[in-house]
């Protein structure tokens, strides 16, 4: 009997490589799903499975025999209200469609992510919606071959063929610089938690592209990263924002505007600056990213780049429902960023808020705030 690489238990992907076919074809042949597989290919797959000592996944067999209405959700954390808004949109759509939601938070820990995914498989979920910071693509493919349908959002998983909801993070970074420059700011700084996921990489890339477009030098030196990324009773992004603001204040060379990687970090920046007697926006303008529901309610009301959370969750659930009806269908929906000007950004040299800024009262948010333009895939 041949062994899989490194002596591990053989998977359908070992059979697929040996036979020169896809994992999906192997799964269909071995599960007798009724999907047409030619007799020679089926015979080759069965022979390779026997040679490698492959044993079918029991959970996968159960999934194929059962019409589950349970779907799993794995999120990086729940301390950032962006993800709670995603969950609200997702659950609203899931209930409308008759699905039940099983939730897990990974705390951005790859081991917890893997355990959460395996747990969902043992619960015999029909599918899962995930945003993973350090995904195990091989595990996801194995679960997918066993019958679990996947939809990802925000963080694309390389090597996994599935439907996904994307956002143009790079365009958001570029839009932030364009807006601040339009308001007369050229001494800009980008602040963020560690750049440890594709979304943050793209956001920073857009910021740097914007600096280059407007001829602003020393781009890399204008990106300041915090070192805290651990969950607690208070979101780590707030503390990162405070610490980064303290560093800026103590440096003796304040920028005229700060772009934060999310609204929570922006709140921390405003708190940190205010604690040192630095006024926002009179001394330093602050621009956030996400447009959380309460960003309009703080003082000063936070100017931000909208990253549609509720709509992302609802769209992900709709795509998963499509996947569960047609396993071969892959759809990609992409949202574009949208500027939401408010009081925390002020035109340089002016006593007035940035052009088009709304007031800080909740009713200043218009109906158009909830409508997002999707980018055609």
What does this 3D model show about the protein?
The chain is an alpha/beta fold and 377 residues long. The protein has three domains: 52 residues, lambda repressor-like DNA-binding domains (434 Repressor (Amino-terminal Domain)), CATH 1.10.260; 129 residues, Response regulator (Rossmann fold, 3-Layer(aba) Sandwich); 178 residues, Rossmann fold, CATH 3.40.50.2300. Helices cover 41% and strands 15% of the residues. The protein is built from twelve helices and 13 strands. Strands 2-1-3-4-5-11-13 form a seven-stranded mixed sheet, sandwiched between helices. A six-stranded mixed sheet has the order 7-6-8-9-10-12, with helices on both faces. Strand 1, helix 5 and strand 2 form a beta-alpha-beta unit. About 5% of the residues have low confidence.
Described by strand count, sense and barrel closure, the largest sheet is:
7 strands, mixed
Tell me which CATH architecture of the largest domain applies here.
3-Layer(aba) Sandwich
Which CATH top level class of the largest domain fits? Answer: Alpha Beta
Please compute the radius of gyration using only Cα atoms: 24 Å
What class would the helix/strand composition place it in? alpha/beta
Portion in beta strands: 15-25%
